[in-house]
Amino acid sequence: MPVRITTLSENTAQLGVLAEWGLSILVETESRKVLLDTGMSISAVHNADVLGIDLSTVDTIVLSHSHIDHTGGLRDVLRRTGEVEVVAHPDIWIPKYVVFGELQRYAGIPFMREELESLGASFKLTKEPYKISDDIMTTGEVAMTTDYEQIDDRLCLKVGDEMIPDPLADDLALVVKTEQGLALITGCAHRGIVNTVRHVQSITNGEYIHTIIGGTHLHVGSPERIEKTAAELKELGLQRLGVSHCTGFYPAAALAREFGDVFFLNNAGTVLTLD
């Protein structure tokens, strides 16, 4: 069975579906249906209905990290799925904020764990790569190895009364095996898209990555970082690069120029089939 990847929520949308800041991507293989993230609020459930997708058939939910634009739709999704495994990093419950000067805005999961569990969520919290099935796994905590990918310094954790820089240790991605090789599906890639790629290569013994889909968080990247990112991704020999959400207009244009027909904008309503 081909792998089918449907983007249910993203900042932009194809005709007939709802756009909303955030991300939610459904991966369907022969063995599992896995939902990566749940969008900001209503969009994932709304668009699933429009696209004729039955969320009650989802086997596993993976949270790429705890920011509200990836977890805000979780309650509504759980009302459709019922009992379901939710895979994430243990740090998802640490209070997260975005800080703009004197303004501090809460940016973490907007629900209590107890409420989500009462709706059927069974949390599997781990820092390590987690094998969901023979063809789907998480990256676990991504190692930071490049010298040019830094985490957005506006993102903070609240520890006691103190705001400290958020290392985004909970940032993870989804890896899907296909007959062609691997597909990498990211939420935001806060710890760096190249760091994420390198990490995947290290945990899969260098398996070929033919497709990357999702957020890259390059909208805060310097021109130098964007140039170096494009150059290193180019070395992979990608067949598809579909950027979303936090990539940003200028970085997306730079990647489109570099990758040509390999590049596409992965927005809500996009359906991709991988053999």
Polypeptide structure, described:
This protein is of the alpha/beta class and 275 residues long. It has one domain: Metallo-beta-lactamase, Chain A (4-Layer Sandwich). The chain is 22% helix and 30% strand. The chain is built from 7 helices and 18 strands. The strands form 3 sheets. The chain has a 7-stranded mixed β-sheet with strand order 8-5-4-3-2-1-18. Strands 9-10-13-14-15-16-17 form a 7-stranded mixed β-sheet, with helices on one face. The chain has a 4-stranded antiparallel β-sheet with strand order 7-6-11-12, with no helix packed on it. A hairpin with a 2-residue loop joins strand 9 and strand 10. 45% of the residues are buried. The mean pLDDT is 96.
CATH superfamily: Ribonuclease Z/Hydroxyacylglutathione hydrolase-like
State the helix count: 7
Q: Report the average pLDDT across residues.
A: 96
**How would you characterize the largest beta sheet?**
7 strands, mixed
Q: What CATH architecture would you give?
A: 4-Layer Sandwich
Distance between the termini: 8 Å
Strand content: 25-35%
The sequence of SSEs as H and E is EEEHEHHEEEHEEEEEEEHEHEHEE
Query: How many separate domains?
Result: 1
> What spatial order of strands do you see in the largest sheet?
8-5-4-3-2-1-18
Q: Got a strand count?
A: 18
Write down the overall geometry: globular
Using only C-alpha atoms, the radius of gyration works out to: 17 Å
Low-confidence stretches: none
Helix content: 10-25%
